[in-house]
Amino acid sequence: MSRLSLNPPRGPIRATVKVPGSKSVANRALICAMLAEGKSTIRGIPDGDDTQVILDVLTAMSAVSMDGDAFVVHGVSRPTLPGIIDAGLAGTSSRFLTAVAAIATSVSVIDGGEPLRGRPMADLHEALQSLGAQIEPLGTVGHLPVSVSGTISVGGEIRIRSDVSSQFISALMLIAPTLSGGLSILLDGTAVSQSYIELTARVMAAFGVEVQCEPNSIVVPEASYVPCEYVVEPDFSSAAFPIVAVLLRGGEITIPYLATAMTQGDAAILDIVRQLGATVAQHGNDVVVSASAGKVTDEIALTMSDCSDLVPVVAVALAQCAKNARIDGVGFIRHKESDRLGDVASEMSKVGASVQVTDDGFRIEGAQAFSGAVLSTHHDHRLAMSFALLSLLTDGIVIDDPSVVSKSWPHYFDDMVDILGPVRVAN
Description:
Layout: E1 3-5, E2 13-16, H1 23-34, E3 38-43, H2 49-60, E4 64-67, E5 70-75, E6 84-86, H3 91-101, E7 107-111, H4 114-117, H5 122-130, E8 134-137, E9 146-149, E10 154-161, H6 166-175, E11 180-188, H7 194-206, E12 212-214, E13 217-220, E14 229-231, H8 236-249, E15 251-255, H9 268-275, E16 279-283, E17 286-291, E18 297-303, H10 311-321, E19 322-328, H11 342-349, E20 354-357, E21 362-365, E22 373-376, H12 381-388, E23 397-400, H13 412-415, H14 417-420, E24 424-425
Parallel strand pairs: 2-15, 3-14, 6-7, 10-11, 18-19, 22-23
Antiparallel strand pairs: 1-23, 1-24, 3-5, 4-5, 7-9, 8-9, 11-13, 12-13, 15-17, 16-17, 19-21, 20-21
């Protein structure tokens, strides 16, 4: 396990950072293309681990090829998946592929690394079983690994909790058009990450399936996915890191083509940094964010259930840019790649930040004096990328196991070199 020491250049930031394509969009587009009879062409796919899991499955099926920089997917409505699928640490990919395995003409074992085995899957497994899937736990019930037989062919109506993970709902939505009669999904509770459900519907529409989304229900008709040419837009979740960097250090950051991704839920980062004193402008398809270092907001309260992936990086921003801050509505992120409440609070306390965990978020007392520390990433790419930004506030920041950024942005430290400086291996 490596460690990286960070020593950013001094002074205000003046940089252009091209962020990778959205893995959330890419994963959904690849599943739609997998289930569309015929040939789809997808451009802008990022090279992170999560998306690679689905590409590896397509490769094992001999269902994907390259055409220049584009991926060409040869889909069928009832695919034959590999016998063993190793999802690594990819929660979204594992859940989507579990659902696909439930309609496939094969039996597949879905597994992953130990951190992924620890993540909850019971709600999805139970939902698929209620539709007729044969899901056999090969370890702890409600977790990976599982053996899945493709026995679902008829839809109908299903009820599922919506306050645990939107990925379960999206997984059901993606296979729903292939089921006889389609599928009505009734939602119990207040949906978390509603924006990701809407994102799933938007990608499905590009492949010819119109989904009806209501506050407490989702109706997916029986339909055939239509092959298409699809371009994956830049990832707002990734763009949040250079955007928060300019808020911490001051200056100006340009993110090329980011304006084409404004419908992503994590576009909320623009409103958040505006509340913290930044200026946001659109120049053609580019987004430009500028800020003056040292601005501190007295109080700010954020409900982030629809943009929960932003929580670690926003916590870093608030620790510097707000005297009293609150993040609510995100208790469910304790079960992401890490405990994104407890782990963020404990690591940030090492640098002197005051971050208190509540039932569903944080209380942060900002504008503290920071000090250097060795910070653990807890197998979580977003923690690694967020904690790296603390080097803009104090010397001596060392990131333990920085390679976890490969999950979504493998070249993060290279692409952020103008902001974070050249990294070096720490002792």
